[in-house]
Amino acid sequence: MGQMIEFADGAHDAYLAVPESGGGPGVLVIQEWWGLVDHVKDLADRFAEAGFVALAPDLYEGETTKAPDQAGKLMMALNIGKTAEKLGSAVDALVAHGATKGDKVGAVGFCMGGQLALFAATTDERIGACVDFYGIHPNVEPDLSKLAGPVVGFFAEKDGFVDLAAVTKLMQAMGEAGARFEVHRYLDTDHAFMNDTRPEVFHAEHAREAWDITTRFLHAQLGA
Predict the structure, then answer these.
(1) What would the CATH number be for the domain defined by 3-222?
(2) How far apart are CA 202 and CA 191, in angstroms?
(3) What is the pLDDT of residue 122?
(4) What is the structure's pLDDT at 59?
(5) Which of 6, 36, 96, 169 is the most buried (most CB within 10 A)?
């Protein structure tokens, strides 16, 4: 359904998926630490099937990996300042696209991307809704008082990266910042439970429920 495009005058690449209807609300899809892999492109396609114009920027500039050690190195090597600029340019491209309806977009991120989605939502007022799937990045600390819209978060009981203490801390920070948020925490579930290319962690029932919540939330906030 989608295709690779260039944005910001050809400086960056992204995967763009447009609904068959020809238009819809815009959603920024932010990758896991593996890079812009086929799973992320598939998620963008699924958002398009759900009626959204989905744009997944390539934050690693062409690099991908299947090795956890290399993924960790790529994540930690990410220049957060440059990444913020790239995400801002991606929002520019998404808002300006002829298929995108409305001047507000959503940001949805997975793993590393979940934390970056929160970060982007605190730095760009055009992000009117944010969905954080088990977000983690030790070098990214969003100023939650600057959130321009509501947040939905999904977390897993058996997550070795984002444990109960981390989720509790995030919820407390959200409350103190006066943010509008809701958190869903799934029992007997691992980190990356949405990733159907990883059978060792994928949880079909919870992934389906989280997907339904996500698409309803985004349509409600951004317009059907």
Answers:
(1) 3.40.50.1820
(2) 9
(3) 96
(4) 97
(5) 36
Phi, psi dihedral angles at 132 (to 5 degrees)? -110, 110
**Residues 10-28: pLDDT tens digits?**
889 999 999 999 999 999 9
Q: How far apart are CA 6 and CA 10, in angstroms?
A: 5
Are the C-beta atoms of 222 and 105 separated by less than 8 Å? yes
- Rounded Cα distance between 189 and 92, Å, is 36
Burial class of residue 63 (count of CB atoms within 10 Å of its CB; 0-12, 13-18, 19+): middle
Assign 70 to helix, strand or coil.
Answer: helix
Q: Which residues of 89-122 are buried (b: 16+ CB within 10 A; e: fewer)?
A: bbbebbeebebbbeebbbbbbbbbbbbbbbbbbb
pTM exceeds 0.85 for this model = yes
Using only C-alpha atoms, what is the Rg of the chain?
Answer: 16
Q: State the pairing for strand pair 3-7/53-57.
A: unpaired
- Lookup: tokens for 218: 């985004």
